[in-house]
Amino acid sequence: MNVDRVQVLAHRIAAHGLHRAGADAAELAVFDLGLQDSMRDTALLGLVARLGGEVTPESLVDDDRLALAWSHRGAPHFHRRAGLAELTASLVPLDEADALARIMWQRKQVREAGLDALEVLFTTARAIRKVVKGPMTKGAVSTAITKILPPAFSRWCRGCDATHVHEQLMRVATPHAGVRLEAGESPATLAPLEDRGPIRTKPDVAAATRVVERYLRINGPAAPGDAAGYVGTTRSALDRMWPEGLAEVDVDGRRTFLPADLLPALENPPEPDLVRLLPPLDPFVQARDKAVLVPDPARQKEVWRMLGNPGVLLACGEIAGIWRTKSAGKRLAFAITAFDPLRPADRDAAEAEATRVATARGFTAPTVTWLP
Question: Which InterPro entries did the record assign (predicted)?
Answer without folding.
Answer: AlkZ-like
